[in-house]
């Protein structure tokens, strides 16, 4: 029993990180139909900039704030400089543009910072909490809480606010959205800022657990992408569920079957789900215009 | 159409040649993994080589000849490493090559170097690189097998008979895992649990819980490098596991203690090199001056702690300089012959003595069993 | 002057390039780079069929390259096959696997197809990485010598190792390009290209969409597999990197950067992206920065890819 609980804690910790990344994917996808493969680099930057600021003497919360704001600004810049000029390009081209952005950010990070592995102190100390014979680090609660809060915020944003609905309207039909007076450029800017900020937040929350380095972004992007697709791209509920599911599948496979093939299990589940539900668990049905 | 293409390609080819124009007396090639998954190992190697070449040239070079270093970053990719090895030999016309951060890249470089009869000093762990002995290939790091032997010797002394292993699935972890499983029987030790993790994993409590619950485990061994072992060490303390924890030489650096946290790292043992305990070495230890000088120079210049891997590059370079000096010539064949006659050369990793049937030249004594005590490395024994 | 068809023009340009450029090579290293361009060009020609013609995305084709490569490493030792037959075996396995995997996942669209193929590629890479007893694990495994070079020597044609692989890969690329170009003009090829516009529209005019997509997937898998075999045989050594995610991305990037709509464009892209890291060594630590920048700039400003855009510019000036 305590064994199962420990596996669940492990899965929730890792799953929360994936969920945060997946939520970041969702926002940009909702606004622009672009899957931003540079999402992982936002997570990396959140961690690296915070470490850098903290090492330079800033108090941790301030360093984290700087990291989130700087990354959000960078997200806006990527939208303005790389995504907007490529509007209407096919999916493959957009994938390559965002992967190009990811390679670029990685190259920049190794120049500005370094190639070492870094970390900063956990927010609430390192004394593990004991629950039912299993243990969890306080920082894990921060990450899980972060994922839930971000999800709730996004859900409210998309369903209860005019601006959030404007984002969804822009994604459904850009022209129609413009016709009813939505400033679609502003919507795009906002989405990238929000998405990059959430990515950076994930980096800030997760670094005391996962550690960070200039090249950790790709790993986060892959898992977050997989989580978002498993849940159904574009739906915050799907992103949250997909991220946590992948984390839990990995931990339970590692615990009960084979730690070597735990990631294989996650991808097999994704392939199976997509086989029966081609739009993911919570995805919308889309129709192709001829 | 045809015209565009034929003019573009030769233009690109001319650009390729740009990098290889320098003319100095001794041309040294290097291909290391300064980026990519093995950057944690390759980056300090690249920095070390650049620093040492600069130092040596400032002092007037070897036998009055300066060294020109041509260094490429193969990103840990074996295919790229082979291309760079070809480029170093055919295009840059180097007289010797140091590099091959990973076993995969080393195997690629060595086959090119052997064909061209250019001496190659590898910085990777696997025993296959130098066994069977290949005439032009040498290497500086201990083999994974030796690290396993050193660890199992120490376990044997403490009466440990059953252990759990948790290994990274990267080249370093997987190779050492296989070697340890191969050699463990000779020490009367049984592996009761054998788990792995991906180098990018963020939490290893599931695997460690499984190991803890395996019957009669008395100690845990974690072959791996990068962030994995730090996370394993933290999770180990989080779960409150009281058994001795052994890490590998893959994390032999002050950086490990910092990342794992002083409290979590307390009591961790690993087979390390003299480099980590420079200030604890006896005054008459032949490695003391080498280790102290390298540590001071590297940490002063790059503001980051020295580690075992940078030390491998240091020793590779030291072996080469020693060989060229003794040979009095920088002809590849002469360097090769002199390398093979290396005797009593003190490096950061150990004291090297090569022979025609031993192209590694280190024995188990080069490893020192280290333990984290009060947040610092100390020598066990 | 009689107008050349696009097909023979493409093949002529390729053949001329392969034959003529060696006269400009200052050292043996350039044969190696050339051979790599041809191997990448072959893999990318498969992507043209899948992505350029049929409009389907794959982020997992390196998995097939891995199968082709490891077939050459394993079949000779375990099954006693000649390395060349091992390559054929790899291609057959890749085709069968592509058929089995393609049936369910090609029903998916866009990003869903991308993640499914990604998952497939990662699974292959994972098996190659973890089944150490068979594959040698992440450290890689030796591949036996093809032996053709020795045979040629007996017949009086003495080539260096670099020269041999340059011409051998060049010839395989020519054959691959010829097949792809023929396919482009065949009725099947027209059906493929109809998918690119709109699958529903293609369906309504009586094209069996699922079958045609599957064909494209299987054929492109064979291209990737043969390319993987050539890398393995040439290097006489192989590591699981060949099946890795980054290699899949590299293939797609080469094709799209050069112009995935045409064989020549894609091969041009393979050439540029193979040369770029070699040229960028001058920039040392700025390499990644520049590579990322190039990827973004080309896709933003030359949307159809480098070659088509450059050709259009030239044609525009000529008129």
Automatic annotation (TrEMBL), chain A:
GO terms for cellular component: plasma membrane. It is found in: Cell membrane. Its main location: membrane. The keyword Transport applies. One of its GO terms (biological process) is amino acid transport. Keywords: Amino-acid transport, Cell membrane, Membrane, Transmembrane, Transmembrane helix, Transport. GO terms for molecular function: transmembrane transporter activity. The keyword Cell membrane applies. The chain crosses the membrane at residues 7-31, 51-79, 91-113, 140-158, 179-205, 211-231, 238-258, 264-282. InterPro entries: ABC_transp_permease, BCAA_transport_permease. It is a multi-pass membrane protein. Belongs to the binding-protein-dependent transport system permease family. LivHM subfamily. This is Amino acid/amide ABC transporter membrane protein 1, HAAT family. It comes from Paracoccus thiocyanatus.
UniProtKB/TrEMBL annotation, chain B:
Residues 25-373 form the Leucine-binding protein domain. One of its GO terms (biological process) is amino acid transport. Residues 1-24 form the signal peptide. It comes from the Bacteria. Keywords: Amino-acid transport, Signal, Transport. Belongs to the leucine-binding protein family. PANTHER family: BLR7848 PROTEIN, LEUCINE-SPECIFIC-BINDING PROTEIN. This is Amino acid/amide ABC transporter substrate-binding protein, HAAT family.
TrEMBL record, chain C:
The chain crosses the membrane at residues 29-50, 85-102, 111-128, 164-183, 255-276, 288-307. It comes from the Bacteria. Its main location: membrane. The keyword Calcium does not apply. It is found in: Cell membrane. GO terms for molecular function: branched-chain amino acid transmembrane transporter activity. Pfam families: BPD_transp_2 (PF02653). GO terms for cellular component: plasma membrane. The keyword Metal-binding does not apply. It is a multi-pass membrane protein. Keywords: Cell membrane, Membrane, Transmembrane, Transmembrane helix. This is Amino acid/amide ABC transporter membrane protein 2, HAAT family.
């Amino acid at each position: 029993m305590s064994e199962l609980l420990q596996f669940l804690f492990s899965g929730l910790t890792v799953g929360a990180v994936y969920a945060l990344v997946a939520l970041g994917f969702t926002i940009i996808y909702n606004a622009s139909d672009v899957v931003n493969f540079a999402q992982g680099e936002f997570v990396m930057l959140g961690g690296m900039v915070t470490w850098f600021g903290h090492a330079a003497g800033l108090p941790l919360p301030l360093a984290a704030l700087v990291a989130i704001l700087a990354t959000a600004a960078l997200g806006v810049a990527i939208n303005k400089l790389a995504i907007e000029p490529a509007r209407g390009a096919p999916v493959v081209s957009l994938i390559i543009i965002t992967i190009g952005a990811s390679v670029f950010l990685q190259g920049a990070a190794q120049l500005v910072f370094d190639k070492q592995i870094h970390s900063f102190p956990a927010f609430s100390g390192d004394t593990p909490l004991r629950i039912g014979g299993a243990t969890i680090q306080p920082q894990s609660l921060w990450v899980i809480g972060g994922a839930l809060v971000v999800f709730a915020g996004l859900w409210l944003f998309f369903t209860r606010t005019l601006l959030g609905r404007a984002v969804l309207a822009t994604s459904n039909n850009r022209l129609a959205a413009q016709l009813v007076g939505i400033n679609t450029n502003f919507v795009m800017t906002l989405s990238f800022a929000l998405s990059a900020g959430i990515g950076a937040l994930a980096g800030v929350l997760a670094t005391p657990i996962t550690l960070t380095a200039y090249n950790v972004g790709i790993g986060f992007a892959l898992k977050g992408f997989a989580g978002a697709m498993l849940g159904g791209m574009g739906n915050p509920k799907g992103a949250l569920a997909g991220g946590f599911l992948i984390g839990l599948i990995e931990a339970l496979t590692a615990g009960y079957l084979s730690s070597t093939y735990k990631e294989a299990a996650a991808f097999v589940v994704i392939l199976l789900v997509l086989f029966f539900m081609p739009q993911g668990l919570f995805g919308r049905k889309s129709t192709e215009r001829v | 159409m045809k015209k565009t293409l034929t003019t573009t390609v030769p233009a690109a080819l001319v650009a390729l040649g740009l990098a290889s124009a320098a003319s100095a007396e001794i041309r040294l090639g290097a291909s290391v993994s300064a980026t990519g998954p093995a950057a944690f190992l390759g980056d300090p190697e690249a920095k070390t080589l650049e620093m040492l070449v600069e130092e040596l040239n400032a002092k007037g070079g070897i036998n009055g000849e300066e060294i020109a270093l041509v260094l490429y970053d193969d990103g840990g990719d074996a295919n790229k490493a082979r291309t760079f090895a070809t480029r170093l030999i055919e295009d840059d016309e180097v007289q010797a090559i140091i590099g091959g951060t990973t076993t995969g890249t080393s195997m690629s470089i060595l086959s090119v170097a052997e064909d061209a009869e250019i001496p190659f000093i590898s910085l990777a762990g696997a025993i296959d690189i130098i066994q069977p002995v290949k005439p032009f290939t040498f290497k500086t790091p201990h083999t994974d097998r030796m690290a396993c032997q050193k660890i199992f010797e120490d376990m044997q002394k403490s009466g440990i008979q059953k252990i759990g292993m948790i290994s990274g699935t990267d080249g370093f972890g997987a190779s050492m895992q296989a070697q340890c499983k191969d050699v463990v029987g000779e020490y009367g030790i049984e592996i009761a649990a054998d788990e792995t993790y991906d180098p990018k994993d963020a939490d290893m409590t599931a695997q460690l819980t499984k190991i803890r619950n395996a019957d009669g485990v008395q100690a845990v061994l974690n072959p791996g490098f990068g962030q994995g072992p730090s996370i394993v060490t933290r999770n180990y303390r989080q779960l409150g596991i009281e058994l001795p924890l052994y890490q590998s030489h893959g994390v032999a650096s002050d950086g490990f203690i910092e990342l794992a946290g002083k409290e979590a790292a307390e009591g961790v043992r690993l087979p390390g090199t003299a480099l980590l305990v420079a200030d604890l070495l006896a005054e008459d230890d032949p490695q003391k001056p080498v280790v102290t000088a390298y540590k001071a120079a590297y940490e002063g210049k790059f503001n980051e702690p020295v580690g075992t891997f940078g030390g491998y590059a240091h020793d590779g370079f030291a072996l080469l300089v020693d060989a060229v000096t003794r040979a009095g010539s920088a002809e590849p064949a002469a360097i090769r012959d002199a390398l093979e006659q290396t005797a009593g050369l003190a490096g950061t990793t150990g004291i090297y003595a090569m022979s025609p049937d031993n192209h590694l030249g280190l024995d188990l004594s080069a490893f020192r069993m280290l333990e984290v005590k009060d947040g610092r490395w100390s020598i066990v024994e | 002057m009689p107008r050349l068809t696009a097909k023979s023009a493409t093949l002529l340009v390729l053949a001329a390039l392969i034959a003529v450029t060696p006269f400009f090579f200052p050292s043996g290293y350039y044969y190696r780079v050339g051979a790599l361009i041809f191997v990448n060009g072959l893999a990318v020609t498969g992507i043209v069929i899948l992505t350029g013609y049929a409009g389907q995305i794959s982020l997992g084709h390196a998995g097939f390259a891995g199968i082709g490569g490891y077939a050459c490493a394993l079949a000779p030792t375990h099954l006693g096959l000649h390395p060349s037959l091992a390559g054929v075996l790899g291609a057959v396995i890749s085709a069968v696997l592509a058929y089995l995997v393609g049936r369910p996942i090609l029903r998916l669209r866009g990003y869903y197809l991308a993640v499914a193929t990604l998952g497939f590629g990662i699974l292959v890479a994972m098996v190659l990485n973890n089944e150490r007893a068979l594959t040698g694990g992440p450290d890689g495994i030796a591949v036996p010598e093809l032996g053709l070079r020795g045979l040629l020597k007996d017949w009086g044609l003495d080539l260096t190792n670099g020269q041999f692989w340059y011409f051998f890969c060049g010839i395989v690329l020519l054959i691959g390009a010829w097949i792809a170009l023929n396919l482009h003009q065949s009725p099947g090829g027209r059906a493929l290209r109809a998918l690119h516009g709109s699958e529903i529209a293609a369906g309504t005019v009586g094209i069996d969409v699922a079958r045609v997509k599957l064909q494209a997937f299987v054929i492109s898998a064979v291209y990737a597999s043969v390319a993987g075999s050539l890398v393995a045989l040439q290097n006489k050594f192989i590591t699981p990197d060949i099946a890795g995610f980054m290699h899949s991305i590299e293939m797609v990037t080469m094709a799209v950067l050069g112009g995935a709509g045409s064989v020549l464009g894609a091969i041009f892209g393979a050439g540029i992206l193979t040369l770029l890291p070699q040229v960028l060594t001058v920039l040392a630590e700025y390499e990644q920065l520049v590579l990322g920048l190039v990827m973004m700039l080309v896709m933003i400003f030359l949307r159809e890819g480098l070659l088509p855009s450059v050709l259009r510019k030239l044609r525009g000036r000529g008129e």
